Amino acid sequence: MTVTTSKPEGEVAEPKMVAFTIDGIEAQVPEGTLIIRAAEQLGIEIPRFCDHPLLEPAGACRQCLVEVAMPDREGNVRPMPKPQASCTMTVTPGMVVKTQVTSPVADKAQQGVMELLLMNHPLDCPVCDKGGECPLQNQAMSAGRADTRFEDVKRTFPKPVSLSSQILLDRERCVLCQRCTRFSDEIAGDAFIALQMRGATQQIGRFDEKILGFESPGCGCGDGGCGSADETSSSAADTGVPDTGAPDSPGREAAVIGADAAAAKSRAETDAGGQGFSSYFSGNTVQICPVGALTGASYRFRSRPFDLVSVPSIAEHDSCGSAIRIDHRRGQVLRRLSGEDPVVNEEWITDKDRFAFTWQSAPDRLTTPLVRERDEAGDRGELRPASWAEALEVAAQGLARARAAAGVGVLPGGRLTVEDAYAWSRFARQVLGTNDVDQRARAHSAEEAEFLAHAVAGTGIGVTFAELEKAPAVLLAGLEAEEEAGVTFLRLRKGVAKHGTRVFGLAPYASRGLTKLSGTLVPAVPGTEATVLAGLRGPVTDPTTPAGDPRAAASQALREQGAVILVGERLAASRGACAAVLELAAATGARVAWIPRRAGERGGVEAGLLPNLLPGGRPVTDPAARAEVTAAWGLSGEEASRLSAAPGLDTAGIIDALSVGHLSGAIVGGVELADLPDPAHARTALGAAGFLVSLEVRRSEVTDLADVVLPVAPPVERAGSYWNWEGRVRSFGAALDSTALPDHRALHALAAQLGSDLGAGTPGEAHLAVAALGAWTGPRAGAPGARTPEFTAAGATPTPAGRPGTGADDTAVLASWRMLLDDARGQDGERHLAGTAKRPVVRVSSTTASALGLSDGVQARVVTGRGAITLPVAVTAGMVDGVVWVPLASSGSRVHDTLGAAPGDVVRVRAAQAAGGSAGKSIDTGSAE
Amino acid sequence: MTDLLPVLTDTWDAPRSWRLSTYEKHGGYAGLKKALRMAPSDLVQTVKDSGLRGRGGAGFPAGMKWGFLPPDDGGPRYLVVNADESEPGTCKDIPLMMASPQHLIEGAIITSYAIGCNHAFIYVRGEVLHVYRRLLEAVAEARRVGYLGTNILGSGFDLEITVHAGAGAYICGEETALLDSLEGLRGQPRLKPPFPAVEGLYARPTVVNNVETVASVPGIVDRGSDWFTAMGTEKSTGHGLFSLSGHVTRPGQYEAPLGITLRELLDEAGGMRGGKALKFWTPGGSSTPLFTAEHLDTPLDYESVGAAGSMLGTRALQLFDETVCVVRAVSRWTDFYAHESCGKCTPCREGTYWLKQILHRIEGGEGQDQDIDVLLDLCDNILGRAFCALGDGATSPITSSIQYFRDEYQAHIDGRGCPFDPSASALFPYTPRTPMPSAAAASGQLVGAGGGGH
Ligand SMILES: Cc1cc2nc3c(=O)[nH]c(=O)nc-3n(C[C@H](O)[C@H](O)[C@H](O)COP(=O)(O)O)c2cc1C
Ligand code: SF4
Ligand code: SF4
Ligand code: FES
User: Fold this and answer.
1) CATH number of B239-311: 3.30.70.1350, 3.30.420.40, 3.40.30.10, 3.10.20.600?
2) Residue B146 and residue B154: Cα distance in Å, rounded?
3) What positions does the domain NADH-ubiquinone oxidoreductase 51kDa subunit iron-sulphur binding occupy (chain B) (predicted)?
4) How far apart are CA A293 and CA A735, in angstroms?
5) What pTM did the predictor assign?
6) Is the ipTM here above 0.85?
7) Contacts with A200 from chain B: Cβ below 8 Å
């Protein structure tokens, strides 16, 4: 049972204390404390169902009744006539509370409520997923009667209802505590489920025409209603209890009852299953449901809680560093839950963090090292399993040869633990003698690297979650918080609700996430962010600015004490934007935090996985910085001389160099080539590499090209730490026993083969190695802008400040970012989760839609010289004209791969079928190409 | 001897009584004209002095409620008139709004002026479409002559009245559920505090008053609080509508000072129908504990009815004669509560579901000895444990009927069915639509007839 009290972090002001008595104990609690919380603090547990410390009080279940007496005006303590809900009443001075421990009235009241709750409960604990960890079960034991007096007919429902492809609801188990609906409404802002019907037929549900007895709005059959609707209304009328055609097979694919595909087609926000889009946070409702009414499709009927071993861990899917709990049985992870960490994720995680874990044990998991021979002409043979000894030897020889030739490029990927990141960084510098190292497997720029060196690396903990929550204003600069950093979005939303935080989003349209933050769009055509940001710098006083201009409001708000600018990954590829953020921060006094998408990127910046940085924010160009590194690593002789003073190549540079033989080899970590700005070019380049070593968990495009593949451990099989975006160290232990090596051990062994000591042979050693090089105290790297930034996104065209594409021709500026749930390999193997992804669409403003001859729901083609993406159009209100948006890496919409383009590029957009005579909308169901 | 006293009902028999002209002809809108020359705070004081208590059931002093509003902060404040009238037996507001809607409109204008409200709402029970229409027309009439709109009668006071039809739920008469419903949300009661006076409609200070309460205001303003306090008792002042229904010769609305007795009202109403004996009655709707013939002389004011173990409620006097099976009556009321429970809290949602089944079993001849005690214990677990007063109300008929008629319950259990003939209590002869196995079993015959009538 949850007994957390959320302690406000960093509060200095002493709260006023209130003295009261509970069960004869005199105590003091801070003013405003609920009786139920106060009791917890004293070790008195009052049973409860609807109460949840992070949700607003509801007082619905009435399980927590206690007797309360309060002093009247004369100071005589007078008992209240009825027992009171302790979860809704705050402690007041002189109050006398008697819980079930000392009050027979409270005890009887609680027993009475418990009996009523159990009366209609199916008592199917032996087959219920919650059995063994069920608050109802537990509290029935502590606060219930031994037998029941109920002899009548129980309420039943057809079971179960699919709320989404991921969440199932067994209505007869529900105690109607409203935790799930309050979570959805108050925390996530996705009112995808609600209470429906009333009295004993009250139930939780989503909008489901069958259950609610609605005529299907989308059925234009015109002959007096279609059959299915009739059927439903009559059955509901006959029984009084709603009857549904609910399917009884829970495990079926993304199909959801009541789906009205025709209606769904016209809705922009639908999930992959065709339903109105539900929520990225729905799994939390399963966790807080105090009974087994809500279950996750993937865990349902898989296990009993008492067979599970629970291990705390940290989620690997984003840079928030959410605390999670991993439950496993006999070497297999069965589920993940949110951990409790008031400082970071409170008690919430995204559905991706909860459900996407099967990738770690996917069938294409690499279990042994692999090597391949090449023939004289350099053509690759087949990979074959090899011993570690052989693989390390082959790898070492190949790397040594490449190092001696034109050198080795290092692409470690953005998902490393900080221990791994340090090992990679040191391997590059000490063993390979190169600064050609870059963790960024995404659109990036030299300007961003400078921004990171100047403003992020070695800065320790900056803006925190708690500060974000209380910030008066937050500018999301190229960050879709809900898509890219889910629990950060939840914190922001809490700030908006509780502290009046005002959110501004620098983007081409107001996403659902921004809307749920009651945010204001600061419109920007991709590529022009720098200009827009610059415009926010001075107070916007231009008399031509219309009243209520979002830029004026943003500019004003950012001046408030505690305002924050959050920088997202897509700003990297927008020329001048990173520099503009720093200038804006300087001008307004706002603080800056960088929120990358991947879990390893902040740690990677600390470790120096950038061409311009050594660990701890040390600039490669600074001799003193190099000297510190040399000393810390104990380098001498040849190794010491390998530390280069010149910044190296970034990801794009490394790939270019490989493709033309300016680098002879590469060592690559967890990088998906499809994530790179120009995947085709990367494939050619790695194909051309003289020697390629891959450290991977699973088979990938890189392993398919590699000469040596060293299998490494996924997070669940190793210990390590992430640095979350705050700069907070988030350590975790190995959840499963495994012989798989983490990256740092594989690299340590490889270094040893090459005659170097990497100091990362054990997790402990690797962890200490991080601390050995503290933050740089010398002069920080300069702010970006000192050198003309190079735009590295493939085929990028500098975007003029004006708005191209408005009507003149069929061009538009491409906007794109990643969805939380998309085609990424980290979500492989989780089909239930996949069903809740947003359906990919093409977004354009209505003006642009008419200029391009598009309308809602028709298929549009987004075309470059490289290829085309075809998706249904969602005309998007308030979107900037002349811009077309598609998801960056969703099913049927692999922007980099298919289009070879990046946000800011000019693309062509047209209706999918040329208007060859036939008028009207053309809806084809064909996918890309 | 207390006599009837028509105030609100005075014009009900006038031709086209619902017209504004009829209302004005009988002195209507004198109160408003007077009120607009007074300071709002003086109006609140006048109503406080009158001792007017809420006519919606709880009897909370109206002037005191108005006085709870926080000082004006420049933002909107609302008056919401509760016209949801759904309590079984309660049937006073609907006839009032049908026969003399301007009473309510004038009262709403004066009340709004007194509390600083520029937009008032009348939330009408959804099923009474005819009343909804009548109110819409009454508001339109008042606006046409300048009683509504801007600068009313040159006073500088502005007011709009919106008439809103509910969707048919008893719970939406509970004031906070009403506010949620009015806001377009699901009609379920809100947590209090904050009370509506502080955060009501759209989280702004709000007064919620019953139709009859508001309609009583013009008279008080026009004729003074002394006139009002001269009627009724010391703590239950003024006039009130007493709605007589059931086995009475002339059912209907009887307006009288509070403190009148049922015996006096029955005299006016021609006594019990067919001269039968009174068996039990509700003093204030089905949510108030039952009375029996021994309470015929209990003064119908808040204090006396309370002292006798019930509540004055809405003065909905439902009278049942000796032909009525109390188990059957209570069972029907319980069906109502089970149907109308909003579902928010466990005691009411689950409790009424269970109570209903037990009562049906007893009525149907399948009662067991422990059932009566289970009923009482269940009621004990619901009363005062539910989230709102609906749950409490559901227990009233059960506990009070067992208090007075426990033997009758026992007879159902022992005799494995109902000893009464339900058609005997009907106004005209009828054949029950559903078979009555209990009646059949009790009389030991008619088994085949019951089956055939199905
Ligand atoms: C279940 C329930 C139903 C109610 N229904 C009504 C109603 O239909 N009309 C009404 O005026 N008050 C009703 N009330 C009382 C209101 O909550 C509220 O007390 C009243 O409207 C206040 O007005 P008054 O002070 O003028 O009586 C109901 C209360 C409950 C608990
Ligand atoms: S589904 Fe679970 S969380 Fe939601 S109301 Fe029912 S019991 Fe509560
Ligand atoms: S007592 Fe509870 S369930 Fe019943 S109407 Fe009130 S809030 Fe709803
Ligand atoms: S826990 Fe207090 S009413 Fe539910």
Assistant:
1) 3.10.20.600
2) 9
3) 327-372
4) 28
5) 0.91
6) yes
7) 338, 341, 343, 349-350, 352-353
